[in-house]
Amino acid sequence: MLKQRVLTASVLAPIVIAAIFFLPLPFFIVAIAGVTLLGHWEWTKFVASSSRLKALALPSLILLVSLCGLWPVTQTGFDLSTVNGSILALLGAIWWLVATAMVLKYPKATSWWSNSAILQQAFGVLTLLPFLWSVSLLRAYEYDNAPYLGAKMVLLVCLLVWAADTGAYFAGKRFGKRKIAPAVSPNKTMEGLIGGLIASVGVTLVAAKGFSIPFSSLPMLGVVALITAFASVLGDLAESMFKRVAGVKDSGSILPGHGGILDRIDSLTAAFPVFTVLYFWLA
């Protein structure tokens, strides 16, 4: 299984990086929208509905509406100060606060949503839509003046999350004793979390310098990286919680050794919105 995971990752990573840097912005947004729709399709496995197509209808409609008129992009690029940008940022922030409470209270407080298809669909939209707009808006940042700056920022978040996952794996394997949320994910430990946070902050600071990404100060960028890395862990835990409630092991089987699209981007769905908001408001 590990060999298959490494092989898939070694093929997938160069494709992702090439798409980030070389796809023209409109095609990049279409590609991310396609990934998001695949994620929504996999999310229907978590929804208490008699039909997966029916469960997909509402998220697809919301995605279409958002693509047509809600993007907080101006002629000069990304702008969170617009009304749409503020609304989307607020929705993303509120959702991950709610998701945190849901994970911490699992399994005691699942009765109010575990049998509601509407709520489960809404959770999918709140997970995937902010991911879609934040990735797109980071890539669009200063696109006319510095076409690759946004690409570097997107890759920076990916490196941050990958560092958090890798650091948590090795630190947890070596030092892990205290479980974070054993009812949701019994393999995650506090020691692993600390190792992942340290690794992600270090990688972010080095990569931001190397990529010449502007920021107000190293300490502030470190704070942004720390919070983003913590959010990425929460994204992973939240998907694990939804899978446990739905009684499924993986969201899909499209990626050999990794499961589905959601199984690969669960950490990113939380990391990208959090980083986007924090970076432009603090760093």
From TrEMBL:
GO terms for biological process: CDP-diacylglycerol biosynthetic process. Its EC number is 2.7.7.41. The chain crosses the membrane at residues 12-41, 53-73, 85-106, 118-141, 153-171, 192-211, 217-235. The keyword Membrane applies. PROSITE patterns: CDS. It comes from the Bacteria. It catalyses: a 1,2-diacyl-sn-glycero-3-phosphate + CTP + H(+) = a CDP-1,2-diacyl-sn-glycerol + diphosphate. GO terms for cellular component: plasma membrane. Pathway: Lipid metabolism; Phospholipid metabolism; CDP-diacylglycerol biosynthesis; CDP-diacylglycerol from sn-glycerol 3-phosphate: step 3/3. It is a multi-pass membrane protein. It is an enzyme of class 2 (transferase). Pfam families: CTP_transf_1. The keyword Protein biosynthesis does not apply. It is found in: Cell membrane. Keywords: Cell membrane, Lipid biosynthesis, Lipid metabolism, Membrane, Nucleotidyltransferase, Phospholipid biosynthesis, Phospholipid metabolism, Transferase, Transmembrane, Transmembrane helix. GO terms for molecular function: phosphatidate cytidylyltransferase activity. PANTHER family: PHOSPHATIDATE CYTIDYLYLTRANSFERASE. Belongs to the CDS family. This is Phosphatidate cytidylyltransferase.
